[in-house]
Each structure stands twice: as structure tokens, then as C-alpha cells.
């Protein structure tokens, strides 16, 4: 059989790891920013970035091949495409997930462990770190600085269906369980002036949330409590919110977390479970992103019925289900 050399070459190009890592290295070294003022030699760039000239030169040559840089007489400059990689002083940019010096950039490498998800059904982060993503991020060097860049970001994904939920309109106290850097709490307290909130999350996230609350003038209404949300939660609040949390956990762990919320809510509190469901919509237009969500989450595909089944196992009843766009909200009670 005659070898299909063109087909083989195409497959190897599809499997290439060098190019994705070259672009990430360029972003991490901020090569586009260093070249913004004018062309430089490889030695100049090495001195400015703290890199070693020989491998850097080979990286630059590959970036020329990719059309991100141009080269002439031993000097390198930006192409129009390469200029898009300039990051400037903006706290968050479109390519921040490519920066390998940040927690976000390192977690983007999770796709390398896709085989772990396919074989075990567990998030790739267990294969990478031996633990869940959030515990790893909380302990990682540089996390507090990385999280500062997120403090200006609002909550997303059709959030109004949660912010305007009638249970919250009647509430005076809310606990945001796994509240990350506090975007949801800030939005809730802005929308509901009589509401006060406690955010629960691991220390790095709770610390960032406390900074957000102070900057927003919410010190008297919002508190950030640093703890694992599998530990006992503050009891007696009107509402406990789990927003975009359960997708990161398998069924057994999700039920455990729901039971913990139920214990804190008692007979009078309500639990709002809000999940973002993107995969069905993306499945037809972006199979790569669909696969990435599957890789990094334990279960990104739970339907309202699936969530209701988890609630029932935790001893909870569903009072109402709402859905808008990509977001599902279940109101639960004991």
C-alpha cells in the first residue's frame, strides 16, 4: 500500500504541540510588548525578557514561520497579526489564559491530560495535580496577585435570572457558597439594597473577595469567610446560593455539598442552585470548546432533572425551576 504522505503530514500538523506552546511562551515573555517600539535582535530580546538567546532565537524563527513576527537582517519585528498579542497595562486581556506564569495560564494546559478524563470520567485536574482545581489554585504561588485582575469582572452567563429570583427579593441574608472573588455578591447587594451577604470560599478567593467588597463600599453588608465549603456553613441565613459550583464535582460530592447547605438552611432557609449549561449550545458550533468543558469539569451537562435528582438524594425538594439562556436556577428547600 502506497503511504499517504500528505495525509500523514496533515495528521501530524493536527497533533502539533510545539506551535501552541510557542504562542503561549511568546505571550508569557510579552514579546509583542517588547517589540512594540521597534525591531530588536534575539540578544536584545533575551536581555529584556531574561531568556537564553539560543532557544529564544529558535522560538522567534518559529513565530516568523507562523506569521506573528517578521525578520530582516538579524532583527525581529511584529506583523499585523503579532500586534494583537500586545498586552499593555490592562489588568485582563483576551490572551491572559495563554500566560504560563499565571494560574489561569497553567490550568489551560489541562488539555494535555484529556486521556485521564476519557478513561476515568474525572476532571483532568485530578490527573494533573492529584486534587481538585480549586484546592490547587488556592495553594499555588502567585494566586492572590492573579485574582486581583478578576476583581473588575462582573458575573456573566445570563445572571439576571438569578439576581432577580423572587426568593432573593424577600431575603435579608444570603450565603454565597463557593463565591470565588465576590462578583455575584457585589451584584446581589447592588440589586437588593436591604440584603447582606457572607461569601464562603478558600483563603485566596475569600481574600480577593474581601478586597472587592472594601473597594465597592460593602464592608458593612458583605463578609468573606475563608473556609472549605464542606465544613459546617454559617447557619440560619435566608438563602444559600450555589452558583456554577456543582459542575466541578461528581455526583457523590455534589450531594454531600447539598446536604451541607441543607443542614445550614434548616427548615426555613432556601437553597438556590444555579448552573451554567453551555455544552448543548456549543456542541454544534464549537466541538473543541465543548470537549474542553468536559475535560475541566466533572459534569458540565447536568439538566434540571439531573440537578433535581441530586437534590432529592440530599433530602431536598424542588420548589421551582427557572431557565434563561444558558443559566438554570433551582429553588430547593428541606
From TrEMBL:
This is Methyltransferase. GO terms for biological process: methylation. Residues 113-316 form the O-methyltransferase C-terminal domain. Residues 17-85 form the O-methyltransferase dimerisation domain. InterPro entries: COMT-like (IPR016461), COMT_C (IPR001077), COMT_dimerisation (IPR012967), SAM-dependent_MTases_sf (IPR029063), WH-like_DNA-bd_sf (IPR036388), WH_DNA-bd_sf (IPR036390). GO terms for molecular function: O-methyltransferase activity; protein dimerization activity. Keywords: Methyltransferase, S-adenosyl-L-methionine, Transferase. The keyword S-adenosyl-L-methionine applies. PROSITE patterns: SAM_OMT_II (PS51683).
Amino acid at each position: 500500500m502506497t503511504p499517504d504522505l500528505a495525509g500523514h503530514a496533515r495528521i501530524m500538523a493536527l497533533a502539533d504541540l510545539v506551535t501552541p506552546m510557542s504562542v503561549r511562551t511568546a505571550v508569557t515573555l510579552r514579546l509583542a510588548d517588547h517589540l512594540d517600539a521597534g525591531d530588536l535582535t534575539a540578544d536584545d530580546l533575551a536581555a529584556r525578557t531574561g531568556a537564553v538567546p539560543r532557544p529564544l532565537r529558535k522560538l522567534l524563527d518559529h513565530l516568523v514561520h507562523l506569521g506573528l513576527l517578521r525578520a530582516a537582517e538579524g532583527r525581529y519585528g511584529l506583523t499585523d497579526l503579532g500586534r494583537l498579542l500586545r498586552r499593555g497595562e490592562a489588568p485582563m486581556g483576551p490572551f491572559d489564559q495563554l500566560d504560563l506564569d499565571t494560574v489561569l495560564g497553567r490550568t489551560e494546559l489541562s488539555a494535555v491530560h484529556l486521556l485521564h478524563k476519557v478513561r476515568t470520567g474525572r476532571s483532568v485536574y485530578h490527573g494533573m495535580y492529584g486534587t481538585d482545581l480549586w484546592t490547587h489554585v488556592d495553594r499555588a504561588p502567585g494566586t492572590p496577585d492573579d485574582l486581583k485582575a478578576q476583581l473588575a469582572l462582573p458575573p456573566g452567563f445570563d445572571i439576571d435570572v438569578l439576581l432577580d429570583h423572587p426568593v432573593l427579593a424577600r431575603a435579608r441574608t444570603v450565603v454565597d457558597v463557593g463565591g470565588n472573588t465576590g462578583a455575584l455578591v457585589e451584584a446581589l447587594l447592588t440589586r437588593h439594597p436591604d440584603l447582606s451577604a457572607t461569601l464562603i470560599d478558600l483563603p485566596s478567593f475569600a481574600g480577593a473577595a474581601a478586597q472587592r467588597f472594601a473597594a465597592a463600599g460593602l464592608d458593612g453588608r458583605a463578609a468573606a469567610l475563608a473556609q472549605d465549603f464542606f465544613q459546617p456553613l454559617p447557619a440560619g441565613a435566608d438563602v444559600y446560593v450555589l452558583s456554577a459550583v456543582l459542575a466541578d464535582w461528581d455526583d457523590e460530592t455534589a450531594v454531600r455539598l447539598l446536604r451541607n447547605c441543607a443542614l445550614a438552611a434548616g427548615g426555613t432557609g432556601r437553597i438556590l442552585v444555579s448552573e451554567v449549561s453551555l455544552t448543548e449550545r456549543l456542541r454544534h458550533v464549537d466541538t473543541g470548546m465543548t470537549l474542553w468543558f468536559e475535560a475541566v469539569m466533572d459534569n458540565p451537562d447536568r439538566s434540571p432533572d439531573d440537578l433535581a435528582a441530586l437534590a432529592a438524594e440530599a433530602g431536598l425538594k424542588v420548589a421551582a425551576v427557572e431557565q434563561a439562556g444558558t443559566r438554570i436556577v433551582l429553588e430547593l428547600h428541606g
